[in-house]
Amino acid sequence: MSVFPYLMAGWILLVGIYGLATSRNLIQAVGCLSVAQSATYVLLLAVGYRRGATAPVFSDLPVGAPVVDPVVQALALTDVVVGATVTAVLLALVIQLRKRHGTVDPERLTGLRG
Amino acid sequence: MSRRARLLLLAAAGLVVAGFFAAACLRLPAFGAAVHPYGERAVAAALGQRTANTVSSVNFDQRAFDTLGEESILYASVLSAVLLLRLARDERKHEPRPAPVLPSTRLFGAVLLPVTLLTGGYVVAHGQLSPGGGFQGGVVLASGLHLAYVAADYRALGRVRPLAVLDVADALAAGAFSVLGLVGLVAGAAFLQNTLPLGTFNTLASGGLVPVVNAVVGVEVASGVIVLLAQFLDQAVEVVER
Amino acid sequence: MPDTARLLPLAVAVPLLGSVLLAVAGHRLPRLGTDVLAAFCAAASLGCLVLLWVRTGDGRAVSWVGGWGPPGGAPARGAQSVGIVLVADRLGLGLALLAAALVLAVVAYAWRYFEEPVGGHAGVFPALLLLFHAGMCGFALTGDLFDAFVFFELMGACAYALTGYRIEDPRPLHGALTFGIVNSLAAYASLLGIGLLYARTGQLGLAQLGQALDTRPPDLLVVCAFVLVLAGPLVKAAAAPFHFWLPDAHAVAPSPVCMLLSGVMVELGVYGVARIYWVVFAGPGGIPHPAFRSVLLVLGTLTALLGAVMCWQQRHLKRLLAFSTVGHVGLFLVGVALLDPAALAGTAVYVASHAGAKAALFGLCGLLLDRYGSVDEHGLHGRARELVLPGLLFAVGGFALAGLPPFGTGLGKALGEEAAGRQLPFLLPALYVLVSAVTGGAVLRAALRVFAGAGPAPVDRPGEPETSGEGEEPEVRGPGRRLPVPLVAVPAVLLLCSLLVGCVPAVGARLAEAARLFTDRAGYLAAAYQAPPAPAAPVPPAGWTAAGVLLGLLSAALATGLALLAVHPLHRGLGAALNRRLVLPLRRLHSGLLGDYVTWLVVGLAGLLVAFAAQR
């Protein structure tokens, strides 16, 4: 089952997308976006995994010890920060939208069409 | 589109995407394989720069330009939250009332607040040595401060949270990252080049530019997250319709 | 003075520092001080890019950030670098330069535009503009795929907030949220694609990835990674069916922000598609040229037709302009899809000139909002007769969109038509003429109605899905004041620039050189490591031809005819059946519902996957 972790990433993406497409609550929708984003963490970390290796920190490891790929960890860290901050902007928009529209149901926002 | 039509369309398209993604995964190198060319190069480069935590070396030295962009996103979203959650024309602020707190909660907060802040500071300072760094420590610092809200009330949080100072600190730290980049240029090297003395491996002063950028990021994340949360908390606690 | 290459990161650092300066000093200065400081920072950034443009010349400047170049400085070992490379050529730098010029125009336009911000938030708006600019520069100059994702997200985060700037009005918040969620989702799809490529090759640099892919024949993994990576740029470029967010966001963003979104951000999406394909996937290990050409041609044609049809249907002026952007982006995608330096040169000229014309038109819409609190073509019928000069400028903008010679849009269109005609005679040139005539005609129709009161007052069509432009929150307070000079002067200057792009032969010549360089894949791969040989392909032509002028005049005449027909009483009932059968269902698809837009995104991805896999 060595392909299972990769498939998991695809599954998480699709679950997040399903949530986004069917959600009736914008806060939940922003949460679903974060779920979809988690797929990228899973894929990146799975790609960098090496069997029998440990964390790539050499303060208490002999130089030359097998470690997992530090690059994908750095990418995932960047990705986490990007995701968290974009989520903050989107939630700020939802808060103001709730005040002006009186609803957080995306199906009831019909001001822009045609 | 009716909801039913949307679901059918989504299911059909989702199946196609899932099929292709699975086919792609089957062609990836096996999970846990030993070959990671970039990773091995990055580890060698990190050790060459005397940085024990190779993830920090990638983030703050080898691919520091990514982190510059990422810090700018954090900074942009703090500005965005300030802009979007400003007082609308039909809103005003009201003074939050003091709230009763259980003595045990108060004690819990009073003990934990300094411990959390110390932990956060430690995680930032040891970013080049042990797991952690500016982001992780910064978030610990920022959320630790909000123990004051849990253990006392919103006014107590206001007293330990000098927003005007933190606002400027966030901006200056964001700017300092670019300035550190320019230092490399002025020194006749490349932008963001690690031109500082590298120190001794596995000590606090090792890694050259890494601990400096790490500290700058720590300041930016801690102050940025506090300012960001302040905008949201204000909406929940203070802002009412006129 | 250090060499140009090492100065490249300044394109990002200067606007970043400017935004810090504005955020810190903005609310401590008087209003005038903030405006002056913003103009200074934007000008400094523009100056920096002009310097880089001049010094880079017709070649490439390559900069390894942090000095992490090939180990030992041996160029041949470029694939062993651990750093991020910036690669600037005339197209990348040109887009950064265009962004800088538009930011400066926006800062000048927004001089005293917004009401006094409450609670000491002056400076935040221009600070976000500069951060947005830094994001666009980073995206245009980077030679690293993950770095491109980071700057893509920086552009996004700023753009979402700027779109939702008017928090008192519900519609901007709705548009900004849709914009944010759809774009972010696409960006995460791109990142998944980057993850797949990294797993296969162990590289992140564009050139390094391209070289590594070329070592083995392409398989489904490459197809899947290609489509996922393109998701982000295609959504940003608003290619159908990824375009739904664009009219919603552009219709409601403050007019100065629309100038940037429509003028350069959307075009950066097209640039991303072209850059990623040419460097990473155009080799033997990527996607074959015929497959890319046919799929993108279909995508571009679909986008162009849809944009034109929907543009004609709008009464909300900013939404009308937004759909005309969709139509033109379709043409840009066609220009990229042809994989021909000549078509690319035409597209570059087209983009530069389109930015000026479109930004000017959005600026004039802002003027209408300022005067009348409305951008509704029906509601404003005949009300703006007093605005003679703005009315004339609006009409000139319409002719520019229609591609009237000697506007740069006309030149870009002519070059595109000529190159397209060589690959698919009649059909593709007809597409160019049709789309520019319909979008230009829609603008002229609006100009006739709003500024001249031509024809009978249009009747409302109750029951049809449409967005009216009435009841907008004015972007400024106190409509009784005198007309601010920048609201007219900036659009006038922008239109003049759009004209100059077509009249100054040097612009076309430089962009033709740029297009030749852009399509020289071997050169890019080599440049990331060492000094490359000069490209072997000939420089494509970039001047006016008789056929080009005639086709430009044809589409301008068609646009005028369409506009006159639309305001003529005879027009009533004409094509009603067609409208009901074809156009109405299309308009219903633009429902404004987030769930629908996400579904279309997945449908688009699935379609692209099938299309590319079938032609492998």
Quick rundown:
Helix content of chain A is 65%, strand content 0%. Chain A is an all-alpha fold. Chain A has one domain (4-51, 62-105): Helix Hairpins, CATH 1.10.287.
Task: Please explain how this structure is put together.
The complex is a heterotrimer of chains A (114), B (242) and C (616). Chain A has helices spanning 4-22, 26-48, 70-101. Chain A is an all-alpha fold and 114 residues long. Chain B is an all-alpha fold and 242 residues long. Helices cover 69% and strands 2% of the residues of chain B. Chain B has a two-stranded antiparallel ribbon with strand order 1-2. The longest helix of chain B is centred in the C-terminal third of the chain and has 29 residues, at 209-237. Chain B is globular. With 616 residues, chain C is mainly α. Chain C has one domain (143-459, 485-614). Chain C contains 23 helices and two strands. In chain C, strands 1-2 form a two-stranded antiparallel ribbon. The mean pLDDT of chain C is 91. Chains in contact: A-B, A-C, B-C. Chains B and C meet through helix 1, helix 2, helix 3, helix 4 and helix 9 of B and helix 2, helix 5, helix 6, helix 7 and helix 9 of C.
Low-confidence stretches of chain A: none
Assembly type of the chains comes to: heterotrimer
DSSP strand count of chain A: 0
**Low-pLDDT residue spans of chain C:** none
> What is the CA-atom radius of gyration of chain A, in angstroms?
19 Å
Category by helix and strand content of chain A: mainly alpha
Mean pLDDT of chain A: 93
What is the CATH topology descriptor of chain A? Helix Hairpins
Q: Please describe the biggest sheet of chain C, giving its number of strands, its sense, and whether it closes into a barrel.
A: 2 strands, antiparallel
CATH architecture of chain A: Orthogonal Bundle
Total count of domains of chain A? 1
What is the number of helical segments of chain A per DSSP (H or I, 4+ residues)? 3
Distance between the termini of chain C: 49 Å
Q: Can you tell me the overall shape of chain A?
A: elongated
**Silhouette of chain C:** globular
Tell me the number of structural domains of chain C. Answer: 1
Overall mean pLDDT of chain C stands at 91
Number of DSSP strand runs of chain C: 2
Strand content of chain C: under 5%
Number of helical regions of chain C:
23
Transmembrane segments (chain A): 6-23, 30-51, 71-95
Family (chain A): Belongs to the CPA3 antiporters (TC 2.A.63) subunit C family.
Keywords (chain A): Cell membrane, Membrane, Transmembrane, Transmembrane helix
Protein name (chain A): Dehydrogenase
